Amino acid sequence: MSNNINQLIILCHKMYEDGKTPTVGILRSKAPFKTSVTEAIEAIKRFNASKPSTSNVETKSNSSTENERVSLANRVDILEQEVSELKTALARILQAR
């Protein structure tokens, strides 16, 4: 059981690095082996007791947030352009009537 819990703790750390909070359900679904609820709870307890500092995760999330903003700004520009084209096309259709 200890080996399984160690593997689950490692999985918790991977999820945490990806910005996800480990939960019993997620941990059980991501585990490469069948695990009981009690094993998942024990692994999460041990993970929380030795949780790494949040500065690394915050740095990663800040850079990904900036990338998302740029991506969203580009998408907004494209959508505004498409709306303008649609308005023009609609005006032409209405004038043709």
Provide an overview of this structure.
- This protein is mainly alpha-helical.
- The protein has helices spanning 2-17, 24-30, 37-49, 55-96.
- α2 crosses α3 (37-49).
- The mean pLDDT is 84.
Round the Cα radius of gyration to an integer and report it. Answer: 24 Å
Low-confidence stretches: none
Taken as a percent bin, the fraction of beta residues is: under 5%
Measured as a percent range, the helix fraction is over 70%
Largest sheet: none
Tally the structural domains: 2
Average per-residue pLDDT, rounded, comes to 84
> What is the N-to-C order of secondary-structure elements (H for helix, E for strand)?
HHHH
How many DSSP helices? 4
| Overall 3D form | elongated
The tally of beta strands, per DSSP, is: 0
For this entry, give a set of tags.
single chain, 97 residues, mainly alpha, 2 domains, 4 helices
Summarize the structure.
With 97 residues, this protein is mainly alpha-helical.
